[in-house]
Write a structure and sequence with these properties.
heterodimer, A: alpha/beta, Glutaredoxin, Rossmann fold, Ubiquitin-like (UB roll), 4 domains, five-stranded mixed β-sheet, four-stranded mixed β-sheet, 13 strands, globular, B: 237 residues, three-stranded antiparallel β-sheet
């Protein structure tokens, strides 16, 4: 495969598409698919056949506003239809060439206006199971350019220059990580893609893997070239069967086109990727536990150092990056070098995909430039809190993150600003809460999550999260005392400082941040035996753990 | 200079100390009679850094690091005992005592228990956390030994001794988080498992979780010191 051949494929796809007057894109991502967008597509195909019009019906990945699904976009007009079902197929097809169907058309201009799509640029525009579609949108060009025109050092330099930071949550500079693995000795090195997305309410990585799998593979191949790795693994949770099947198809197609495997594109560089399934443990998103899991052992974390960059999979230097990090790689090489660092804020460059959920009008996937204000995400993009309720807080970073109250919505979203506010960027879950949410109950929910997902290796996390849960349950049940609250705070300090891995170290964050901003709710529960939001049932007995 | 044969000088609690490259803080401290409390560590077994008792402060780092797996570096300044460390160690012990049913007065290991000894050494006089009082089983299906999960602190010494020294790997951990439990084979009765009955796990167990039935009602001291000797002799072969 050469650049010319890639361009040839792209050209033939364009020629093929030019035969059609219209393109009807049907979102087949999980949210829309679960609302029967599969049947909708079949109905559209039938309606097109019956009408005799030249229309291409294409299945695509996530278009974004999932709560408005199933979504259909008609190109080239870019008309977006929401809440479409199979019964609307004929109306949509017969409207082609005329006025759009008025009842179905949705106006989400404000939703899309402030978004910048880098990672999601292809989602909703290509068929994820067609490599030709990806190639027609400049896919694999970056890989070929890198392999034929750049030295590994130059690749790492470009990534460092871009200012890209790890999108898995920690925000570690990607260029620095690649450089460390590249410098590590040994013939055999590995590249691992962390697709074990487990935060409650987070589905960014799933949508990327399901909507644009080749982008991840291309990013991994570039990384492998840069660090000198010959083997890659994509670790996906088994709860994402669609992601697994689309990645499997993508890997097969990439191999068939000579974009993976032995001597890629005629260069001496060889690289192949295997998929490994996670068995449903949240802790396996932690890199050392993930390594143990790929090796076939129990997914327990181990102390670092040594870091995986030095001693990872089977003791070999291993580069581990998140799905979204790899998805950012190809555009960095496709566009001019300053482009990526021109988006974003001072120390957080580029864009970030967030899964916007909770009490918000437009639930779904959004991609925003870093540095954007929180209220812009919630009010403009998310459409605000529905049902006449008032906004109370937004939870970022999942069970490792914290809540940010209403008066801090002017905060610019960046790694450092969120950290300073007592939360973290995390992998991109954003849960919006309104006045019907009890913050003590929210903290209890996340602590329960950490308790059940703790691996049980180190004592502070294993026994500490269970104790936190008991204390929070008491407070929620109206039987807590001020002593319990003091004990809780003291326990949080120990768990944060002494736990073995990130899961334990960050497990107290939801409690600490709700205590910081909503202490009065805790006091109300304890002193007046009243839940201000009316969520906690004060007559319920304390939950007893077996 | 070759990194592998180098000597590092460092400070532990203000004492100037020299150490071989690659030695852990815990090894160096023990050579110099500086006591760092440990539970999951045992000489002769691999280190897992799980109990967090040996956490120490290192100047220049905000993070507390486990002495058992952290190797020394030149100019390192280690503090093994501070108010902050004391507080955390006591809390970790409290968490252990409240996690399962550790009732010393009726325990076969009373007087020979590392958990009990640590609590005494750290001046732990009462438990402020709510006791969880879980309902756990006792497996006495093997003629010689018994496992009492009520006393287990999940240090995994038995798992490592069985896998690394005996080579049988009969013990392992089942379940997750607070529901973790040590099991033999695929959660079979100990008596029906592939156990070789060597008794190493019993000797390395720091509490009364694994005990010799013949010692019930009498003193039950344990002798885990044979592990380094065994390793030494094996390496000499």
């Amino acid at each position: 495969m050469t650049i010319e051949e890639l361009e040839q494929i792209a050209k033939s796809v364009c020629q093929e598409n030019a035969k059609f007057d219209y393109e009807v894109n049907v979102c087949m991502d999980l949210a829309c698919f679960s609302q029967h967008s599969g049947e909708l597509r079949d109905a559209l195909v039938k309606a097109v056949e019956a009408s005799g019009k030249k229309v291409l019906v294409r299945r695509t990945g996530c278009m974004g506003p999932c709560s408005s699904g199933p979504l259909v976009r008609v190109d080239p007009e870019e008309t977006l239809y929401h809440h479409v079902n199979a019964g609307h197929a004929e109306a949509i097809v017969s409207s082609l060439g005329g006025e759009p169907v008025p009842d179905l058309q949705c106006d989400l201009n404000e939703h899309f206006e402030k978004q910048v799509r880098v990672v999601l640029e292809n989602a909703g525009h290509i068929d994820p199971e067609k490599i030709e579609d990806y190639i027609s949108r400049d896919g694999y060009q970056a890989l070929l350019t890198v392999l034929t025109e750049m030295m590994p050092n130059g690749v790492i330099h470009r990534i460092t220059e871009s200012g890209l930071r790890g999108r898995g949550g920690g925000g570690y500079p990607t260029g620095l990580k690649w450089g460390t693995v590249a410098k590590a000795g040994g013939d055999l090195k590995y590249v691992v893609c962390n697709g074990d997305e487990g935060d409650p309410g987070a589905f960014m990585d799933r949508s990327v893997m399901e909507g644009d799998p080749h982008r991840v593979i291309e990013g991994m191949a570039i990384a492998a070239y840069a660090v000198g790795a010959s083997k890659g693994y994509i670790y996906v949770r088994a709860e994402y069967p669609t992601a697994v099947s689309r990645l499997t198809v993508a890997l097969r197609d990439a191999r068939r086109h000579g974009l993976l495997g032995h001597n890629i594109c005629g260069t001496p560089f060889s690289f192949d990727v295997e998929i490994r399934l996670g068995a449903g443990a949240f802790v396996c998103g932690e890199e050392t536990a993930l390594i143990a899991s790929i090796e076939g052992r129990r997914g327990n974390p181990r102390p670092r150092p040594p870091y995986p960059a030095v001693s990872g999979l089977w003791g070999k230097p291993t580069l581990i990056n998140n799905v979204e990090t790899f998805a950012n790689i190809a555009p960095i090489f496709r566009k001019e070098s300053k482009w990526f660092s021109s988006v974003g804020s001072e120390r957080s460059k580029g864009t970030k995909v967030f899964a916007l959920t909770g009490k918000i009008t437009h639930t779904g996937l959004v991609e925003v430039p870093l540095g954007i204000k929180l209220y812009e995400i919630i009010e403009n993009i998310g459409g605000g809190v529905p049902g006449g309720h008032t906004f109370k807080a937004v939870q970022t970073g999942g069970p490792s993150g914290g809540c940010i109250p209403a008066d801090m919505l002017g905060l610019g979203v960046s790694y450092d600003a969120l950290m300073a506010a007592g939360s973290i960027m995390g992998s991109g879950g954003m849960i919006v809460m309104d006045d019907t949410s009890c913050m003590v109950n929210v903290a209890r929910f996340f602590v329960e999550f950490c308790m059940t997902e703790s691996c049980g290796k180190c004592i502070p996390c294993r026994a500490g999260t269970a104790q936190m849960f008991t204390l929070l349950s008491r407070i929620c049940a109206g039987t807590g005392t001020m002593d319990d609250l003091e004990l809780l705070v003291s326990l949080c300090g120990t768990i944060k400082e002494t736990s073995l891995c990130g899961l334990g170290m960050t497990a107290p964050n939801p409690v600490l941040s709700t205590l910081k901003f909503f202490r009065n709710e805790y006091i109300e529960h304890i002193v007046n035996k009243r839940c201000p939001a009316g969520v906690c049932n004060m007559e319920a007995p304390v939950e007893v753990l077996a | 200079m070759n990194e592998n044969v180098g000597v590092k000088t460092l400070q532990i609690d203000g004492h100037e100390i020299s150490a071989r490259t690659g030695e852990t803080i815990l090894e160096v401290a023990e050579e110099n009679n500086i006591r760092i409390p440990t539970l999951c560590h045992l000489e002769g077994l691999s280190n897992v850094g799980a109990c967090r008792m040996c956490l120490v402060e290192i100047k220049g780092s905000n993070k507390l690091l486990p002495a058992c797996v952290t190797t020394v570096f030149e100019g390192m300044e280690v503090t093994t005992n501070s108010e902050r460390l004391q507080k955390h160690r006591r809390t970790i012990l409290e968490l252990l005592f409240a996690e399962r049913n550790h009732i010393c007065s009726v325990c076969v290991a009373n007087g020979h228990c590392e958990l009990q000894a640590l609590a005494q050494a750290l001046g732990l006089t009462h438990i402020s956390l709510p006791y969880r009082n879980p309902i756990l089983t006792v497996d006495a299906s093997l003629p010689q030994f018994t496992v009492d999960h009520n006393r287990c602190i999940l240090c995994t010494r038995c798992v490592r001794a069985c896998a690394e020294i005996e080579g049988a790997h009969v013990w392992d951990v089942m379940g997750r988080g607070i529901n973790s439990i040590i099991i033999t084979d695929l959660h079979d009765d100990w008596g029906a498992s592939s156990c070789t009955r060597c008794g190493k796990c019993v000797q390395v167990c720091p509490t009364g979780a694994l005990f010799d039935k013949s010692k019930i009602g009498s003193d039950h001291p344990k002798y885990p010191d044979f592990l380094p000797y065994l390793n030494l002799m094996r390496e000499a072969q």
